[in-house]
Design goal:
Blueprint lengths: L6 E4 L6 E6 L7 E3 H36 L17 H13 L4 H11 L4 E3 L2 E3 L2
Antiparallel strand pairs: 1-2, 2-3, 4-5
Protein name: 4Fe-4S Wbl-type domain-containing protein
Length: about 130
């Protein structure tokens, strides 16, 4: 049996025909297609959960930092707007990079949370 060509086998307990496929990154290893797909989905879900949990922790750190120092973005609605004129984006980016004392916390959160919109740590996140 080659690992490049899917092979079909019969499950001896159910009589069901199963497709074997090569496991990515594991030369010579094969697995039942449905089980491999489920394992990959589980891994993806676990990665998403870990990223989400870490993003929550980063958001809490950002909140603590904002309690000590109020950043200019806190009261400026442009930072949560989806579409911005280029001049506003440049002004906001300059503010983030030169004035903001908590940019590192903001950036750490945004990179993990992947916000659907807004302006975070000098970067525009747009849909």
């Amino acid at each position: 049996m080659t690992t490049e060509t899917p092979t079909r086998v019969t499950d001896v307990t159910t009589g069901e025909e199963l497709e074997l496929v090569a496991v990515p990154g594991q030369p010579g290893m094969v697995m039942i297609r449905a089980e491999l797909e489920q394992a990959m989905a589980d891994r993806s879900a676990a990665d998403d959960y870990d990223r989400h949990t870490t993003a929550i922790e980063q958001y809490e750190q950002l909140g603590r930092a904002m309690a000590v120092w109020e950043p200019p973005c806190d009261t400026d609605l442009r930072y949560v707007t989806e579409a911005l004129p280029a001049a506003d984006r440049l002004e906001m980016q300059t503010t983030c990079l030169t004035v903001c004392r908590i940019r590192a916390q903001c950036d750490a959160y945004a990179r993990l949370a992947r916000p659907p919109a807004g302006f975070w740590a000098g970067r525009a996140y747009t849909p």
